[in-house]
């Protein structure tokens, strides 16, 4: 019955139903987080939850990389669940490495694991694809980059649900007094723990924005550690420190191959100086 209903909807394709790569939306946020004066904002593209292998194909990735590159980002950050069923590609998941390498971001592309990456028991295969793609794997690890004379600390945790991601280990190399800190954590509700570590921006995914949303009611089904912060931008305070959290609605789907009132999204986050925002 469910499969029949989905097939019927896909044939009709109403405006609130999203099932194809070209349904993707681009959304932009400007955040006043940089300290130094810069000629232009730092442009970060945030994507998440592709779930390659479950209704998300090689061709879908081609199309979305074209959109990402058209935004001319300085950095691209992928917050988990890159693959869902990595072994369905005839045992050749490495075919994705040359394609992922076409992402253009002069300050680098970064990735941290999600619960489906870990649940697949093929993490070593995913790691090989990521590393052969030239993508930086931030797995309970971080390092400092320089943006026009400003130090920015980028880090990521392992998946929280399946692998007990370690925030303190991820922050081990940080100089707290000097660095703007951006952390990738797949599960967004973990922000209520991360906020105590003076992180400035947490990037998360996991929820798919709900994937299936009901007008006026929201998402009836949400995953563990994704029930409080569902999609979009949030401000979370701890004592005198403000942390921003962005939750990506993701690009792929899980369980059902459709999205209802919840389009897939590529997010552009532009970091500007505090003075510019005043």
Quick tags:
278 residues, six-stranded mixed beta sheet, disordered N terminus, alpha/beta, globular, Purple Acid Phosphatase, chain A, domain 2
Provide a descriptive summary of the structure in words.
There is one protein chain. With 278 residues, the chain is of the alpha/beta class. It has a single domain, classed as Purple Acid Phosphatase, chain A, domain 2, CATH 3.60.21.10. Helices cover 22% and strands 27% of the residues. It has nine helices and 14 strands. The chain has a six-stranded mixed sheet. The protein has a six-stranded mixed sheet with strand order 7-8-9-10-12-11. α8 links the parallel β9 and β10. The protein is globular. The termini are far apart.
Any chance you could write out the topology, listing elements then pairs?
Layout: H1 2-12, E1 17-18, E2 25-34, E3 42-47, H2 58-70, E4 75-78, H3 96-100, E5 109-111, H4 115-119, H5 123-132, E6 136-137, E7 141-147, E8 150-156, H6 160-163, H7 167-170, E9 180-184, H8 191-194, E10 201-204, E11 232-238, E12 241-247, E13 259-260, E14 265-273, H9 274-277
Parallel strand pairs: 2-14, 3-4, 4-5, 5-6, 8-9, 9-10, 10-12
Antiparallel strand pairs: 1-13, 3-14, 7-8, 11-12
GO molecular function: UDP-2,3-diacylglucosamine hydrolase activity
Domain Calcineurin-like phosphoesterase: 42-209
Pfam families: Metallophos
Give a concise summary.
By secondary structure, this protein is of the alpha/beta class. It is built from 9 helices and 14 strands.
